[in-house]
Design a protein that fits this description.
The chain is α/β, with parallel strands linked by helices and 240 residues long. Helix content is 39%, strand content 13%. It is built from 10 helices and 10 strands.
Length: 240
């Protein structure tokens, strides 16, 4: 599947480290920042490619234009699916395979209520790096403790790799009334590059994290959630 899916790539895909992203090309996902992180990572680990599972030209502009700004060549440095329709997406079976061809998922979101790509990746046993903000610390089990030292961090019961965000007085942005005047935290590029390199160099240490995440996420099946809602509805109805 990997060879066929990346058949238009200009690299030997069997020997290429795939950094993937499943996220819509919109303001909150901050895909240009992920491109910058990848570019800095690729300078240090050149046998790598960025895959963005998104529409090339969407509400946050052209990914191609952003890529040109970072000197990323399509097919060699980065690639996207052809004729992608964000309203239709891909079948679950195909998306499962796409998560599995990633060596790691990189997210630079500026805020999440849940973050489907993280728990989807967990089910596929794909490691995710994401900023340690909003709901993500709960998903990663990184609500407390130092997230700077990656070596000591992976010894803990984490379910993903947290990235610094809003860690300096400069790492924030606001987009006005269309975003309800929110102050959005920005992912620290240098921290993300450092942790991507660590993962590339220590791939044998990834499996315990992804296995832990896989076991944890099983409790959030539709069946399990439906049962919890049923209990809640029965309790409320009885109280009436």
């Amino acid at each position: 599947f990997k060879k066929n899916f990346f058949r238009k790539a200009k690299v030997d895909i069997s020997r290429t480290f795939i950094v993937g992203i499943v996220a819509r090309n919109q303001m909150r996902k901050d895909l240009p920042r992920a491109m910058k992180i990848f570019k800095e990572f690729q300078k240090r680990r050149p046998q790598s490619m960025l895959y963005i599972h998104a529409k090339e030209n969407d509400v946050w502009g052209s990914l191609g234009e952003y890529a040109r700004a970072f000197n990323l060549e399509v097919g060699r440095d980065w690639i996207i699916p052809g004729n992608y329709n964000e309203a239709l997406g891909y079948p679950i079976e195909a998306l499962n395979k796409i998560y599995n061809i990633m060596d790691v998922q990189l997210l630079t979101t500026q805020g999440e209520g849940w973050c489907n790509p993280i728990t989807e990746a967990m089910v596929a046993k794909t490691l995710t790096l994401a900023p340690n903000i909003t709901s993500i610390p709960e998903l990663f089990n990184t609500e407390t403790g130092d997230i700077d030292d990656i070596a000591s961090l992976v010894e803990k019961d984490i379910r993903g790799i947290p990235l610094k965000a809003n860690s300096t007085t400069s790492e924030w942005a606001t987009y006005g009334p269309t975003d309800f005047e929110r102050l959005r935290p920005l992912t620290n590029v240098d921290d993300a590059v450092k942790k991507l390199i660590w993962i590339y160099d220590n791939q044998d240490k990834v499996a315990p994290i992804t296995e832990r995440a896989y076991q944890w996420v099983q409790q959030y099946s539709w069946k399990a959630m439906a049962e919890k809602w049923d209990v809640l509805f029965q309790k409320v109805y009885t109280a009436l």
